[in-house]
């Protein structure tokens, strides 16, 4: 099995077995102001929302996780079946292996998503660094692979810098993102992979014409940490040490959400989102939806019902937050009163200087 495919299998194993969580997303510093007289019925709160033209039952995104190795097919099947059943959004992992390898098992790890979720909002995934090698037609192949409703272009340069075999040429990517955003048949989402997107980068992406920004901020799964474990396994001691050093690097998710939302109307908040309350906080900060990845991985291993159960729990947590802020709908939640405290407040104040 080629290197790209094996790497996908390594990633899942490390996430399941090792400590790859960081704190510091900032959600603990955000408090929604309680409404003691909500004057609404909890069960009539409307969690539906629209994301890139698609109506979802709740503003929840199963973030891009995997694909590219036959061992990941089961995971994507369970995630996609759950997305179909509950009508939330889902992304697949990087499709590089599917585009570059002539292997039916690898291809199935992606195509299974649309096969079992004919109506779900699914988005594909390619890396910004790969756009230097791909033309728009190549990215269209990734769209066609899963009949995608949108295409994510992921930014993972810190992860690449820690990989012994990483692609560390970041030159020219913005121009390539603009080219794809202009020429692709579906909306383009640009997403980070755990290190956040600053205000200035969000502005550059907005000017490039991307349709949404997924901040994937610091405070959840650390890909630098994951690659540090991989480097250790092959004796790459220097890369292992760099991975540890940059383990908690990045713009915290709350800061990144606020900064990106000041520059673009469609922002997905991810990176350390661990509850429906976090999703509610993200929406109050200006996000259109909240995304989770790692929390879905273990349920996906147990099957579709476990994933559905988690989505239903997240939705009830979100609905409860709406109820006790007097928010009858997602647009009302977006304007819910909130305060930002602690380190996150200090960070934001320093950013204003």
From TrEMBL:
Annotated compartments: Cytoplasm
Reactions the enzyme catalyzes: isopentenyl diphosphate = dimethylallyl diphosphate
This protein's UniProt keywords: Cytoplasm, Flavoprotein, FMN, Isomerase, Isoprene biosynthesis, Magnesium, Metal-binding, NADP
GO BP terms, alphabetized: isoprenoid biosynthetic process
Chain residues that bind Mg(2+): 160
One GO CC term on file: cytoplasm
Chain ranges of the FMN-dependent dehydrogenase domain: 22-95, 170-335
Binding of substrate, residues: 7-8, 94-96, 159
Binding-site residues, FMN: 64-66, 94, 125, 191, 221, 272-274, 293-294
Predominant cellular place of this UniProt entry's protein: cytoplasm
GO MF, one example: isopentenyl-diphosphate delta-isomerase activity
Cofactor(s) named in the record: FMN; NADPH; Mg(2+)
Pfam families documented for this protein: FMN_dh (PF01070)
EC number from the UniProt entry: 5.3.3.2
EC class name: isomerase
Family named by the database record: Belongs to the IPP isomerase type 2 family.
Its job: Involved in the biosynthesis of isoprenoids. Catalyzes the 1,3-allylic rearrangement of the homoallylic substrate isopentenyl (IPP) to its allylic isomer, dimethylallyl diphosphate (DMAPP).
Complex and partners: Homooctamer. Dimer of tetramers.
Protein name per its UniProtKB record: Isopentenyl-diphosphate delta-isomerase
């Amino acid at each position: 099995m080629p290197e790209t495919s094996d790497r996908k299998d390594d990633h899942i194993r490390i996430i399941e077995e090792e400590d790859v969580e960081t704190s510091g997303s900032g959600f603990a510093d955000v408090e929604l102001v309680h409404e003691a007289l909500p004057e609404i019925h909890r069960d009539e709160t409307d969690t539906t929302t629209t994301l890139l033209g698609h109506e979802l039952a709740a503003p929840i995104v199963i973030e891009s996780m995997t694909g590219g190795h036959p061992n990941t097919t089961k995971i994507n099947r369970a995630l996609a079946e759950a997305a179909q059943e509950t009508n939330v959004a889902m992304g697949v992992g990087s499709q590089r292996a599917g585009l570059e390898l002539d292997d039916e098992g690898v291809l199935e790890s992606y195509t299974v998503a649309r096969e079992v979720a004919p109506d779900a909002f699914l988005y594909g995934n390619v890396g910004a660094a790969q756009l230097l090698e791909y033309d728009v037609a190549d990215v269209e192949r990734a769209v066609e692979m899963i009949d995608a409703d949108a295409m994510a272009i992921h930014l993972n340069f810190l992860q690449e810098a820690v990989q012994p075999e990483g692609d560390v040429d970041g030159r020219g990517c913005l121009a390539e993102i603009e080219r794809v955003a202009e020429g692709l048949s579906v909306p383009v989402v640009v997403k980070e992979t755990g290190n956040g997107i600053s205000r200035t980068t969000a502005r550059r992406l907005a000017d490039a014409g991307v349709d949404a920004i997924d901040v994937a901020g610091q405070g959840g799964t650390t890909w630098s940490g994951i690659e540090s474990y991989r480097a250790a396994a092959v004796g790459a001691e220097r890369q292992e040490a760099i991975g540890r050093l940059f383990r908690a690097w990045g713009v915290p998710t709350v800061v990144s959400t606020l900064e990106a939302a000041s520059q673009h109307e469609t922002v997905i908040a991810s990176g350390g989102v661990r509850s429906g309350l976090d999703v509610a906080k993200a929406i109050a900060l200006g996000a259109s939806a909240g995304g989770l990845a790692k929390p879905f991985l273990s349920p996906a291993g147990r099957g579709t019902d476990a994933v559905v159960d988690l989505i239903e729990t997240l939705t009830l947590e979100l609905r409860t937050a709406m109820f006790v802020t007097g928010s009858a709908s997602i647009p009302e939640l977006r304007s819910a009163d909130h305060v930002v405290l602690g380190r996150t407040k200090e960070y934001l104040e320093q950013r204003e200087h």
